[in-house]
Amino acid sequence: MKRLSLACSLLALLMAPMLMASVGTGQWLKHVPEQDRVRSNPLAHDPDATAAGAKLFHSDCAPCHGADAAGRGSRPMLRSERVRRATDGELEWLLRNGNLAHGMPSWSRLPEVQRWQIVRYLHALPI
Q: Which of 44, 87, 91, 113 is the most buried (most CB within 10 A)?
């Protein structure tokens, strides 16, 4: 029994880095429909959208991704080149649909304008 417990613990230790790596790999991008991928952010030129998105991020996203968006535990860092390269439509799709397999809930309950504001904030984050 002790060997089984030790083997399970060792397996968990070996698997943890792979699991954590898969969370931030961007595999969700494969699931974004083309019509969502190419959507333009209606707030792209609104100077107040980034500040509004920052407030929403700190209340809704920071508990998992950290106040500085540097990630927490298995939650990915959002100050990354991958997030920077993602289209506004891809990020809005992820916020709307989530990725429950990796712990990202759907934020479809947020009004669409608020999701677009968060997207503006995410693209404004320094890397």
A: 91
Output the pTM of the full model.
0.78
Structure tokens at 108: 């479809």
pLDDT 10s digits, 71-102: 988 889 999 998 999 999 999 999 999 988 88
Nearest to 117 by CA among 65, 61, 63: 61
Full set of structural domains in the chain with CATH: 2-124 (1.10.760.10)
- The Cα–Cα gap between 5 and 11 comes to 10
Residue type, 86: A
Q: Which class for 37: exposed (0-12), middle (13-18), buried (19 or more C-beta within 10 A)?
A: middle
